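Long-time lurker, first post.

We've been arguing in lab meeting about whether adenosine-5'-triphosphate would sit comfortably in this protein at all. Half the group thinks yes, half thinks no, and nobody has a model to point at. So I'm putting the question to the forum: if I give you the sequence and the SMILES, can you give me back a predicted structure of the complex? Inputs are below. Any interpretation is welcome too.
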Amino acid sequence: MSTFTESFERPQDPYDRRLALGASGLLRAANVADVLSAADVHVATRIAQLAGEPDDRVRLAVAMAVRGIRSGSVCIDLAQARATLLLADPGGDWPVLPDWRDAVRASLLVGAGRPLQWEFDLLYLDRYRTQEQQVRDDLRDRRAQPPPVVDRVALADGLDRLFAGGDPGQRHAAELAATGWTTVIGGGPGTGKTTTVARVLALLMGQPGARPRVAMAAPTGKAAARLQAAVQAQAVALSPADRHDLPTLTASTLHRLLGWLPGRSQRFRHDRDNRLPFDVVVVDETSMVSLTMMARLLEAVRPDARLILVGDPDQLASVEAGAVLADLVAGLTAVPAAPPATGSATGSATESAAGSAAGPGAVPPGPPAIAPARADAVALLDRTWRFGGDIAELAAAVRAGDADAALAVLARPGADVALIAPEDTAGAGAAVDAAVRPDVVGTAAAVRAAADAGEAQEALRRLDGHRVLCAHRSGPRGVTQWTYRIENWLAAEDLLPPHRLWYPGRPVLVTANDYTLRLFNGDVGVAVLTGGQLRVSFSQHGRIVDYAPGRLADVQTVHAMTVHRSQGSQFDRVTVVLPEADSPLCTRELLYTALTRAQTRVRLIGTEAEVRAAVARPAARASGLRLRMAGG
Ligand SMILES: Nc1ncnc2c1ncn2[C@@H]1O[C@H](COP(=O)(O)OP(=O)(O)OP(=O)(O)O)[C@@H](O)[C@H]1O
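Top reply:
Settle the argument with this. Predicted structure of the protein with adenosine-5'-triphosphate, as tokens:
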């Protein structure tokens, strides 16, 4: 997370490490106002120096664009940038619009072949505009091809069989995914996205001809493991005729699917010149996929492979720049749908347009097809099948921006959701302790018992019993402070031996990728006594692997984690420490993501005013992707 969201006081000391040495003019002013980090200033200064750009206002715009990337925006709107600067320092001599825009547009730094680009009245670092264009072009090219060849009779039979008496929305989503090259299946938790994916795969495997090669992936190891387990569980429920290879399908991280190249974070083994061999690629938790990753994925997937992007567009976007899933949903649905195809699975949209578009399972073509409208590439599921009741109701109210409804659910006696007001600004107090401590201690005791007994699987399962989620990493309500508080509780219960880094039941979060051990940033493990030795166990693709503690370089104890980190995971119960109302992280998406991590109970630590502030503020991420897509 960016420094500006993590700093709690403006730098006062001239030698504060947040201040860029040697900065002057507007860059210095924005740095002192804590809008720009020292790194933003240095990068902007360097870019401007290389191009010989003397205008201080342009340098400020470049630094704001660099800052934008850091906070997840692939580009910036100068009007918003000015508003941010004015908010931080209302008396500052910030450039005024439209002069600022004119200066930036006329700059030597902006234009074809230069480091910055101007489009849609937005300022981009060149690399990100190129990526947006590539994503748009690849999606458009995939769409421009004749649709996949489908045996309509087998498809209609399969749909009738697999969705008999079921959710019509899921059936529609499955039909789209079976008949299009690129499909987005969106929906909140428990709306049946994975159920639908499993059935789409069954439909495709049930088509005549060669069995399609299927890859399933997700941005994190945890999300990949959940996808694999859910698809396998769904497969077991299918009739033997529909089950095919589904129970043996595995899922991997996206990075692994694309092929890690040691030392290269932006490039992969599979790219446009070395495409992935799969006929169907399913990506879950797509909301977490950054623009850069989506660009890499689209160039690696064969044009004649189906791509099924699954996720919840209302969740927090990727940690890195971009809000690709939300943009795709908005951009793809921005165009009115074509008149509905006649019939269902036997309608024209499901037929082959060209006999030459033979793929796996190709059959002689039917009559010419009408290409489905772009809106037909997105299916949004809205019926919740998993947790009924309070959590779903609260999530729906938050998503709809209805704070009154959210607070009404939270105030309901005996509900599975609760709001506990802290007694101090650090988000603590007797009521908070009384509510959270039993959950924390109970979970740690269960993990410890399993770890002492050498039961790694059980220890990992118990670890998901409860988790504290914070908006911030540092600061009074941050992960560090909560970890300290929790460790004190555990020490008082003899669950944390003094002065020992490693002990049975220590839960750890991997904080950097380790290619040798195949452990990835975000993986969670637990120390378990295994044959008299303390080993750290992780679940990898459904099986347990363990390592000596000394081999793990970048891990930290994880009783509490940031909401961003928790994406792709679910826990039985969740305690969410709300950010203060004026925190830039106090957004609707953050609250929605946090509370939907819970399966049975959610406890929010915060005030009514903080709930209102979060619900009222959708996260702002600048991107031109949806405009680009709507424009063709
Ligand atoms: N049409 C349906 N009829 C009955 N149960 C269903 C239906 N669709 C889904 N379910 C059940 O609802 C639960 C959630 O489904 P699923 O895991 O597919 O949702 P999801 O949207 O993928 O959830 P998540 O976002 O948490 O991964 C599962 O137990 C599934 O069996």
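For your lab meeting: The first helix runs from residue 3 to 6. Residues 166-167, 170, 187, 189-195, 230, 385-386 surround adenosine-5'-triphosphate (CB under 6 Å). Whichever side wins, do check it experimentally.
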